[in-house]
Task: structure prediction
Amino acid sequence: MASLTDNGALSPMVRKLAAWAALSPEDERAILELPYTVRSFSPGGYIVRDGDKPQNSCVLLSGFAYRHKIVGDGGRQILSIHMKGDLVDLHNSLLHTADHNVQALSQVELACIPHEAVKELAFARPTVGVAMWYDTLVDASIHREWIANVGRRDGRTRTAHLLCEFGVRLETAGLGSTREYDMPMTQEQLSDCTGLTPVHMSRSLKALESEGLVRRTKRAVSIDDWGRLAEAGDFRPDYLHVTMPGIPLL
Amino acid sequence: MASLTDNGALSPMVRKLAAWAALSPEDERAILELPYTVRSFSPGGYIVRDGDKPQNSCVLLSGFAYRHKIVGDGGRQILSIHMKGDLVDLHNSLLHTADHNVQALSQVELACIPHEAVKELAFARPTVGVAMWYDTLVDASIHREWIANVGRRDGRTRTAHLLCEFGVRLETAGLGSTREYDMPMTQEQLSDCTGLTPVHMSRSLKALESEGLVRRTKRAVSIDDWGRLAEAGDFRPDYLHVTMPGIPLL
DNA sequence: CGACGTGTTGAAGGAGCTCAATCTAAGTGG
DNA sequence: CCACTTAGATTGAGCTCCTTCAACACGTCG
Result:
């Protein structure tokens, strides 16, 4: 009986993929036996730069990272936030040349796997392949929700939505709960997630706080009444495609 | 020597996937031999509804379709536009339950393939599988550009960007050129792509027209100076991951 | 012909931006 | 331990891009 608590460095990847498909013990072992090298980054360090041609797919082992694009007038748009277990760079490495940047948000540990090895595993073990494919589809689903968030919700709602998403994702990653979590992001970074200015992000957060929807202490967020925050953020978690018993569906 | 001009209904799918990976004649034949049923939709018809559990993956054979979400206050955000050859519904069908709507923009012909058959083919023929995976990654890449577009560009720039994207994609699909194309969308739909109001979309288009960047006659668009429009739209086509000799890289 | 969908135009209001000052907390060096 | 620096957060005031509301124009189709 292979144990899930195998202390291979890639176990966060196993945990993540196991959420998408029923992996056999052999599947899990095959993932853990992938060749990899570990790299670490300090906050702000570039993991991938727009235009790079990366040879590796990366799995986030610890810490947080974000993807972003810089537009013509110098503005930055954050495209997604990544945490432990996320396959950060399947996209870029399979697409040959990166069309956006990936940067460390906190201190980050990364396992880099040659993308040929990822491809081989995907096709040698269809269950693993389906799980990886599924993972990329969930990523795209989150992208779609973000398009709707920045396109059609006002500042306060966008902000609340983002806080809800973080709660659910951190809980599924085992890094917090929908009641309380730590998120090491500045308000400038939050504003770049939502297409707002830092000034307006500050005001939106204060508004949510003064309504009693969130409490903040440093970078920690407490949510006393999930239902009210979800309502304020027009948040329904279905687009995350997680089904955890602990997560209130509104 | 299998011919590419095989008149199987699924040839638009072959054409599309062949752009992403070097398919062998056997690969192409295997795609064309997928089981399918053809369905057609009138403009406005729902192909998939939020919450559905579709059993099929769909390929667009002719016409245009769009994905969209409705947010809490009733606003609509269009997430992507699809044209001949696009694998419209891999996402929804593999994710079990749809998190957005897919609707016909014009008269549409669709080939519906049981998603089990798609999955089997993907793993029986890794080259085809890689092409399909690649296709979903390009889809996600377009989503990321849209996040940046609605999040960090002003109305005029967003609009120009969208017109550029249509030009390139229609040209690669063989439905027009970057000099001139038809796009059967109302200004209300265009505004829902960009997170603007119909009124402001009208003004943005007029502005681009009065600057001589586009000419419009009904739903047809002419672009005399691609470089200037691309500049105005902050458009660089790399995120589309197409490499066609005909497309100016700015 | 009237009705309807679509696009255009004007005027007024507002959500969010810009600019700039102030405040706080956490270093850092002496 | 304190002065100094710096990154981040907050607040205010004025401005602008975009929205809202409403009227009107145009073409199509019953």
In short: The radius of gyration of chain A is 18 Å.
